[in-house]
Amino acid sequence: MIDRKMSKRGVVVVSTAALTLSTYALFHVVLQLFPRNSGLIGFDYQYALPYIVSGRNWFRVNGWLEPAYFTPAFCGGIPWFANPLSMLYSMPQALTFVVNPVAAFKWTLLISAMGGALTSFLLLRRVFLLSIQSAVLGAALFEMNSFLIFRLAIGHVPYHVIGYLPFFCLLVLPTPEVPGRRRLDPILNFVARSVLGGLVLAVLVYSGAPNVVVPFLLAATLIVAMRQIASGVSVKPWLLIGTASIWGGLLSLAKLVPAAKLALDYPRPYLPAALWDDPARFVATLLKAFFAPELITHLNMTNARPGAIEIGMHELEFGLSVVPLLLFAALAVVWLRRDRSTPRRSALHGVRAMLFPGCIAILIIALPLAGTLGSEGWGQILVKVPIINNTMLFERWWMIYILALIACSSLAFDRLFHSDAARTAAMFVLISIAATQLLARKLDYYRGAGPWQMYDSTPLLSNTGRIDNEGLPAVSLIDDESKGLLDGVSTLPCYEPLFGYFREWFPAKGLSAGRIEPTASESFFNLADPRCYLDGEAHQCRPGDQFQRFDRSDVEQFINWRPLPWRKPIQFVIAERITLVALFASLAVIAFTAAAQLGWPRRWRIN
User: Fold this and answer.
1) Is the pTM of this model over 0.90?
2) 606 has pLDDT over 60
């Protein structure tokens, strides 16, 4: 009895040490990517940082309950809340009220990585029923995955939502009953899980990542399929994914409806130029992306066709270290050396049980590969498919494999090591290998040696106190990106992916550098009326049309960071009301479930 306690204590001590090492590696790299003594950060923060500062100013002026449908600060006046990439209601935006904006991005990364690690541990331990050591290994691999770290390092902030994936999987997969713990009524349990899952999906949408929702759901579906290959088919997880998706859609309608109206007017037909045409080079790049991304070059040509897109190193960061590769190789060796003389039972029943989840898993695994490898003709077919046709690079869908590879690695680990002593030692060694690989990374690509110039956050950060006290000045000028929010400038030309990476679909052609105020001979303000992007028919205008002279009172509201007077289209109003009803219903379900878990009312729990 004493030996067993000592053994368990030893496992906990070594596991804690291993996780401390992985967390140290995470913090060490992140602090280099977001240094305190330098204002230089990833190049795509030229987009994210001004928007997050504008959001902080908007909510200080108007409060959290007033969505910022439009902004005067960018592109001479454009929609804001309806922009799919807007992060007005997100973790990084909320954190700007606690720390400075760059620190908000840093803490978003750290919270997402550590939160994802914790929920990965729970998923592997409670759902996949793996050993503590195996679950700790999976948690460490998630915590150090380079997709999350380097996406946020470069400025692709919405991708922090990948940290919510293990939690979503926990919600849709059943967990064994804990002896002595109150059990909820099955119906209430199902409803509560559906609502929480819907809230997670809604967070993705409001965090500027509606483009991540489909691969996020596919990643969760792949985890469900993997679990059911081993444990047998159950309808409940599939129903939970469906009901959570529906509920998440209702919670997100307030943004999805205007975002669909806006985004559908600006397609992104880049995919054919980004497909890989060499299978061997494609497979080599895929393997490096997941197991040794440090071997990837700064720029990568996907094909030799005219107009081919060069992919930056950050687009191919999915690194889980060489640890999964080592585990898979070792498991393959063990399998090849197994005793073939032992008679085996017929596996026909098992094959039938695995058929449905196995086919689902194969289809999901094949989809991102089919979207990144092929001819230009295949690309022309892909851009006709809804959802896919708004995707620039299908490589981003490789995120589907991250959690699945971690789960496979943990499963392989428990197959290879059987005693507590062997598992504990192997776990510490493997986590040390992964941490060493991350700590040894050369970060020159992310610290200015890459093909894109880093963004200097100093002007905005050094004026955070002034912005808090005085607010951002009224917008009075249109000028280039060398000036900005602090000078009351609406940037033009502007970097807004909505209008194409080369601004090829930017419609406000009549705007020019100079003052917004019209001269005596002009009948238009030098400022686009952003209502025309969303409801041009009602306002008898087209996207990009400018405010007219008689719109002066509206312009005054708009340039002073106040809500622009606007009679919303009826579909927007209906969407907002549905979202509000769904939100209050969600809060009611959560409160009722918490009360039932505590023992009241008795009819909704089972002792």
Assistant:
1) yes
2) no
